[in-house]
Amino acid sequence: MKAGIVGLPNVGKSTLFNALTAAGAESANYPFCTIEPNVGIVSVPDPRLAEIQSHIATQKVIPAVVEIVDIAGLVRGASQGEGLGNQFLGHIRNVDAVLHVVRCFEDADVVHVDGSVDPIRDIDTIDTELIFADLESVERQIERTNKKARGGDKEAIAKMAVLEPVKAMLSEGKAARAGDYNEDDLKLLKSAGLITIKPVLYVCNVDEDSALDGNQYTAIVAEHAKAQGAGCVVISGQIEAEVSELDDEERDEFLADLGLTEPGLDKLARAAYNLLGLQTYFTAGEKEIRAWTIPVGATAPQAAGVIHTDFERGFIRAQVYSLADLNTHKTEVALKSAGRLRAEGKDYIVEDGDIVHFLFNV
Q1: Each residue of 151-197: pLDDT tens digit?
Q2: What is the Cα–Cα distance from 156 to 142, expressed in whole angstroms?
């Protein structure tokens, strides 16, 4: 799954991206310093992996990951080609969720493209450009689809029934995600490449002093996010850049001095994971303990298919147990003796945190 980092120039997107992916030095302090989208694989912190490892000796531990795409800063008029315009809007269409970085700090040395710090104005600037870009895209699709619909094409008629209301919504300055859709509608809109149908997480980038409790700017963004049904996290890019260069012991001491219990980027990675409607199940054995990513509501065969399509096609049953039971009984042998190793069939809905062995035949 992919999440794209967007925002105005100089809000701290690339600083956060570099810290997330330990990509190295910060980018220069000027607009459009990210010319092509950088892509990084970010581990999702999960203490359950260490718990499992404490009972099952293994050669390696592999966490779940989210793919993060750092997209160059958009400016007012991007949908009409201003700045680097549609080149970057195209990159946003290829992600599953949007991480919208909002500047919530004052710093005279970091130039703001609009001359002052105003989170809601900045959010509106980005939202407007994305809405305009989607409107243009929908209008083109309607023009193509309408010809087929007039010819009686049933698929085209169904598509028009979804695109026309979305066009009206976008024309009113509303994001496509504000609509009420069924599952088929959502599939169609996602395949249409609409940016504003994607879920959004607002990332408030603050100074070091505001990392613990936020500030007046983050309070405004949090209220806006709640009204939009979006998520919101507070992170200090300044702190995260420093943390990314420390070893574990130094990092923990540094964070403790600031009153923080974990890096802000751990919160961001988990929030992005949750934003995409994902959850984790585990496999555990001598070779590896691994976290696997599945959509919430996935069945056992669908979960097996994440490992390999043969597992889903030839699924027989799943052997499932919980981390709580592993902590109690210590070994899989003891779990089986206690009747805590369950056999589940094709209709089983995998729960977050399940530890699973799959039996299959192809």
Answers
A1: 998 989 989 999 999 999 999 999 999 888 998 888 888 888 898 99
A2: 9
Judged by DSSP in three states, 297 sits in: coil
Among 179, 154, 153, smallest CA distance to 164 is for 179
Q: Show the DSSP H helices in 172-260 as ranges.
A: 183-191, 216-228, 237-243, 248-257
Q: Is 256's pLDDT higher than 50?
A: yes
Torsion of CA 306, 307, 309, 311, to 10 degrees: -120
Q: How far is it, in rounded angstroms, from Cα 40 to Cα 23?
A: 8
What is the DSSP-derived secondary structure letter of residue 225?
H
Distances (CA, A) of 80 to 36, 103, 135: 19, 24, 12
- 142: closest CA among 116, 154, 125, 160? 160
Q: How many CB atoms lie within 10 A of CB 194?
A: 25
The two three-digit tokens of residue 219, written as one number: 């309070």
Distance CA 301, CA 98 (A): 29
The pTM of this model reads 0.81
Distances (CA, A) of 71 to 85, 99, 184: 11, 10, 29
Distances (CA, A) of 99 to 219, 232, 233, 338: 18, 9, 10, 45
What is the rounded distance in angstroms from the CA atom of residue 50 to the CA atom of residue 216?
Answer: 38
Q: What is the tens place of the pLDDT at every residue in 117-160?
A: 999 999 999 899 889 889 999 999 999 999 899 999 898 998 99
Q: Is 10 left (phi over 0), alpha (psi -120 to 50) or beta?
A: left
Q: How far is CA 42 from CA 23, 324, 330, in A?
A: 11, 27, 30
Q: Read off the amino acid at residue 204.
A: C
* Per-residue pLDDT tens over the stretch 302-348: 999 999 999 999 999 999 999 999 999 999 999 999 999 999 999 99
